[in-house]
């Protein structure tokens, strides 16, 4: 958006409801309160209520755009007042050539709300608990039984990473951060597995070094699916 351009009125939720009322906040609420209201409303909804989550997200975006528009209008008004004061300054005594007024430059406008926010720790419940347990637990069991075959460990780890990302996205509703956390857990697990593979491979168990290396990654992906939100 170019500097000095006032954005259009932000869209309201699809059903025409007041976004402030939908989030349960007043029009003077600050960003932190808006963020907390959004998270509380999403947490109160059922994971299967896609329409309700979409309405909350639409109301949240509408409130942010409303705040941005108010901020830009205030800055534009302040710049116009500064320019008017400079034009009202009389010319220097002695008939000198008056200087042209200089308009104050507008500061860079940035949309509020873009903050790096880490995940919260909360144990999943219901389908969000038993589905990752069943899926990732089954992949871990398959890794212990078949991970020594050529390419089997890599395929099973890829499926476990995808399952973790889907579980995190279902809990938090944030797609790209969920993928990022899943790959971070995979990377950390492989690093830990690489450190433990050589000494553990000497244990009298029918597991190869590749299988030992993958076990920490499976465990971290499973724990992340159950605890991160």
Describe it.
With about 230 residues, the chain is an all-alpha fold. It folds into 2 domains: about 1-115; about 125-225, no CATH class. The protein is built from 7 helices and no strands. It has helices at about 20-25, 30-45, 50-85, 125-145, 150-170, 175-200, 210-225. The protein is elongated, with a radius of gyration of 28 Å. The model is unreliable at about 1-10 (pLDDT under 50).
Topology of this protein?
Blueprint: H1 19-23, H2 31-44, H3 50-87, H4 127-146, H5 152-172, H6 175-201, H7 209-227
What is the overall number of helices? 7
- N-to-C order of helices and strands: HHHHHHH
Which outline best applies?
elongated
Structural class: mainly alpha
What fraction strand? Answer: under 5%
How far is the first residue's CA from the last residue's CA? Answer: 33 Å
Proportion of residues in helical segments: 55-70%
Mean pLDDT: 77
Overall strand count: 0
Largest sheet: none
The tally of domains stands at 2
Low-confidence stretches: 1-12
Rg from Cα = 28 Å
Describe this structure in a few short sentences:
With 229 residues, this protein is mostly helical.
Keywords:
about 230 residues, mainly alpha, 2 domains, disordered N terminus
